[in-house]
Design a protein that fits this description.
Layout (H helix, E strand, L loop, with lengths): L6 E6 L11 H4 L4 H15 L2 E6 L3 H9 L8 E5 L8 H10 L3 E5 L21 E4 L4 H16 L2
Parallel strand pairs: 1-2, 1-3, 3-4, 4-5
Helix pairs in contact: 2-5, 3-4
C-alpha cells in the first residue's frame, strides 16, 4: 500500500442513524454502528484506516467534506441518502475537495420511486454500488482502496 492510500472517509447521510429500525424491509436490520464496525475490520485488512461521520443536515455533511482538503483523506465512501437525488451543493463540495469517492446505497435506488433514479453525485464518482445492503459499503471500500493503490 502506498503512503498516500492511508486514510479513507466514510460519510453517511440523513436518516442513516436510524438503520436497523427504519424501514427494515428496504434498508435491512443492520445498525449504523454494526456497519461502521465491519468497515473498520475490512479497512484494517486492507491496510488503511477509516474515519466515519453521519449527519442529517446538508451543511454538516458539506463541512465534513471540506475537512478532507489538503491530502488528509485519500478517498471516500459516500452514502448521501436522499441528498444524492437533490443536492447540487453536496456535489459541488465533493468536486471542490478533489477527493476520489465511491457512491453507495443500501437499496437498489433504480428499482424504487422515479425521483430516486437520478443521482447528483454519480457523474463525479469513481463508481456507484447500490442494492447490496451493507455489502454496498464493504464493496465500495474495497473497490476504492484497490483503485487508489493502482493510481500512479
Amino acid at each position: 500500500m502506498t503512503p498516500a492510500v492511508r486514510r479513507i472517509a466514510v460519510l453517511h447521510g440523513p436518516n442513516l442513524n436510524l438503520l436497523g429500525e427504519r424501514e427494515p424491509s428496504i434498508y435491512g436490520s443492520a445498525t449504523l454502528a454494526e456497519i461502521n464496525a465491519r468497515l473498520g475490520v475490512i479497512a484494517a485488512e486492507l491496510g488503511v484506516s477509516i474515519e466515519t461521520a453521519q449527519h442529517n443536515g446538508e451543511g454538516e455533511m458539506i463541512d465534513t467534506i471540506h475537512s478532507w482538503r489538503g491530502g488528509r483523506i485519500a478517498g471516500a465512501v459516500v452514502n448521501a441518502a436522499a441528498f444524492t437525488h437533490t443536492s447540487l451543493a453536496l456535489r459541488d463540495a465533493l468536486v471542490s475537495v478533489r477527493v476520489p469517492f465511491v457512491e453507495v446505497h443500501l437499496s437498489n435506488v433504480h428499482a424504487r420511486e422515479p425521483m430516486r433514479h437520478h443521482s447528483m453525485l454519480a457523474a463525479d464518482a469513481i463508481g456507484v454500488i447500490a442494492g447490496f445492503g451493507p455489502d454496498s459499503y464493504y464493496l465500495g471500500l474495497q473497490a476504492l482502496v484497490s483503485r487508489l493503490a493502482a493510481a500512479p
